[in-house]
Design goal:
Thiol Ester Dehydrase, Chain A; about 140 residues; single chain; 6-stranded antiparallel β-sheet; mainly beta
Length: about 140
């Protein structure tokens, strides 16, 4: 991350080249940008594999909650337009419901033309301790 990028409280070791770069983190919301690169392509025409797009959306959801131990419980998503190598996508996440340690986060991804390419609802959980146990 560049010196001016926001500092997350979670997922600090994530590869921002593959999962997106945080450009804004605020209480209950975040914005992540992902540059789609050749290593993400699924075919010779430059179609990007949806797993990379999902990963950036998931990262945005985690940053919207921004608790150190937050994890994804489930997600309902839609891939609304294809994306290709060279595009820059922006994912905006907003917490829409919080009940104790459970949070629902809406995430929308758009391309540079402002077209929605991804939409999803992420159910996030904040366990008291890391899901892999104490170290």
């Amino acid at each position: 991350m560049a010196a001016h990028d926001p500092v997350p409280n979670t997922h600090r070791a994530i590869d921002t080249d593959l999962c997106g770069r945080p450009i804004a983190i605020e209480p209950g919301g975040s914005t992540v940008e992902l540059l789609l690169t050749e290593c993400m392509q699924a075919d010779a025409r430059g179609l990007v594999h949806g797993g990379f797009i999902f990963g950036a959306a998931d990262f945005a959801a985690m940053l919207a909650v921004n608790e150190p131990t937050v994890v994804l419980g489930s997600a309902q998503v839609g891939f609304l337009k294809p994306s290709r190598v060279g595009e820059r996508l922006r994912f905006v996440a907003k917490v829409t419901l919080s009940k104790g340690r459970r949070h629902e986060v809406e995430v929308n991804g758009t391309n540079a033309a402002g077209e929605t390419v991804f939409s999803g609802t992420f159910k996030c959980v904040v366990p008291e301790t890391h899901v892999l146990g104490e170290s």
